[in-house]
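Entry for the shared binder. Reason: the reviewer on the internal report wants the predicted structure included alongside the sequence.
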Amino acid sequence: MVVGDVTTGTEVLVIGAGPGGYVAAIRAAQEGLDTTLVEKDAYGGACLNRGCIPSKALITGSGLAHEAGNAEFMGVHADPAVDMGRMIEWKDGVVDRLTGGVEKLCKANGVNLVEGVASFVGENTVRVAHGGDGQGSETLEFEHAVIATGSRPIQVPGFDFGEDHVWSSADALDADTVPDRLGVVGGGGYIGMELATTYAKLGAEVTVVEMLDDILDPYEDDVKRVVRKRAEELGVDFNFGEGASEWAEAPDGGYLLRTETEEGEESTYGVDKILVAVGRQPVTDGLDLENAGIETDDRGFVETDDRTRTAVEHVHAVGDVAGDPMLAHAASNEGVVAAEVIAGEPAALDRQAVPAAVFTDPEIGTVGMTEAEAAEAGFEPAVGEMPFNASGRAMTTGHTEGFVRIVADEETGFVLGGQIVGPEASELIAEVALAVEMGATLEDVAATVHTHPTLAEAVMEAAENARGQAIHTLNR
């Protein structure tokens, strides 16, 4: 590509190099299409740079420190000291390696990389503004486009992320010191809960303020109850039904976080940092979508069909900018579908087996239908559970909270979904997701010999429990 006021062409233009965009670009190039990927600042998007990867690095580091300091019951005595600056350096090294890998993979697959900010001029044209003085811009004409511009944290009025003491989730992942007192606004969501437990393990006094009446709203009560109880054991203080109203400087040098209920009752909490984690919003500003004939919905998302196409058929949208489920792995799947649709293949989205995970302590992993959803869909649910406190492997790790639940159709035995809360739930849910995807039955899962002793045996036992044939737990 030539920098300057010139026009060049490409078959497929992808805007945004996050987990939806770079995957779409690579798959399109693999399909033999001339593909151009425009990214304004960081390959890998929010996931690799400011979300999934750095947060899991800090979750691992804080968890390791906490476990080492609380393993007396195993006969292990330690008083670990956390060098937060060094932990951040390690985290950044992981991020740099992965983002560099994304760029190399794109180049190796023949994707043309362009740095800059793209905006639509028409249905088949964008203008890319390059950063830096004198860098100018260029015009790209395309046959197909994929919008993959992702999302950003939502700001709360009066809580400007530009303030040193007000953190976005990205700021919380870059802090080289641990605040003595951390207030988390909107802390009942998955981002807030992950970071609240992380900082509690690092030694902060964590106060969560949440407008809803419980944490992790989409999940079943008995699932989130396990996570909430564990967070409270770690010292997290929950305050439900309260919304942040303002902050003020405190006489002790910290800050006062003021909240208000719907009834007008006010509360004040002393904090040193305020993490705002009320959710994320799509990034569409500056794209000039109207020039391409594309409108957004009332929440700002780009509406798409099951083939990722927008109202303008040759323009696709994938990832967070296209709305729920706002998950990195869902974005990558959408990117593959978009590229294959553009290449003329019979691809389409299938949402029934998209898993979700929350990396709290313990973790949550879910896929498919819950028991209530299965009943509502007209199935007669067969439900099986296996508690981790009956798992030999869980006992040997010292983590026995939670359970595995499998939901199936009573008549056919087909697995419809599963909910796991407990150690390594984010890994274990993959087996249930595969069962849903391939149309496996309870018998298929139960008859699959699982290695002993492993946590995965709990999935087998849950399937047996749903059939009334469990060996290591009482049948329902």
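Summary line for the report: The first helix runs from residue 21 to 30.
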